[in-house]
Amino acid sequence: MFYRFSDKITYGKEYPANKKGLIAGYVTNEELQELALKLNFDASTVESCQSKAKIFRSGIEIYDEYTFTELKVIDPVHQEGDDNTDYVALYFKKDTLIVVDVEDTDLSTKHKFERAIKRFSPSTMTLEKLIYAFFDELLGKDVGYIEELGLQVSDMEEGILEGEPDDDINAKLLKIKRKLLEMHNYYEQCLDIFETLDANENDIFDTDSLMYIANITQRVIRLREDVDSINNAVVHLQDAYSAYLDKKMNNTMKYLTVLSTIFFPLTII
Predict the structure, then answer these.
(1) Does the reported pTM lie above 0.70?
(2) Which positions ≥6 away from 133 have C-beta within 8 Å?
(3) What is the Cα–Cα distance from 264 to 149, expressed in whole angstroms?
(4) Cα radius of gyration (the chain)
(5) Tens digits of per-residue pLDDT, 111-144?
(6) Confidence of residue 62 (pLDDT cuts 50, 70, 90)
(7) How far is CA 62 from CA 59, 130, 196, 204, 234, in A?
(8) How many CA atoms lie within 13 A of 95 on its CB side?
(9) Closest listed residue to residue 69, CA positions, set 183, 188, 193
(10) Which of 109, 103, 40 is nearest to 68 (CA)?
């Protein structure tokens, strides 16, 4: 589906013949094949969209008229056991944003894209505003989730200090560390993209509007710092739990030593 912004948003299944104004599209791989011919997208970028990116920092390609990248989208709020990763590819072109659905099985990323295009007035929407709105939707629930993780770690720490830690605390901490690492890599991926866009090497952005890219960059930096801070707390908590186990073992050994001191003479007699 393609969207053209003027006084209002117009919709269509074909790339607009009238290219005046901002154009946004959310397309499938099949639709990309035809679109690539119209917009002169390099064949290697089209081929990259045929498979999921295996790593977060898969690279960004800069061409004279557009910038291409792949994006692994992490939704931290999901049901246990469900895959929370979507895969899309992004083409940034002068007054054009194309999002390619590589694997968005639940259409969650598409729905966020659709909300993003309605964030600002159609008459004032720009490419920079649209990018800001799209990533803002992608990251919308992260603050609350990170805060919840922080409270979980704090509760575990309280349990250790009170001498009543959960029996499976190590498994819980390892699970939290794995999630934090995933989110850290996700934010690093986003920052790589924003850094390239902000450099504006192919002059596809209005310099005066790059503040929107700068704003979303600062938000992601804060999210990454929050994640790293919780990760440090988890490491310290693991050390505290190990110390708790050592202390508990020492107390047990002291108790056994006292018992041995009392009963050993009786055993000899």
Answers:
(1) yes
(2) 115, 116, 117, 119, 120
(3) 51
(4) 26
(5) 999 999 999 999 899 999 999 999 999 998 899 9
(6) very high
(7) 10, 20, 9, 11, 39
(8) 11
(9) 193
(10) 40
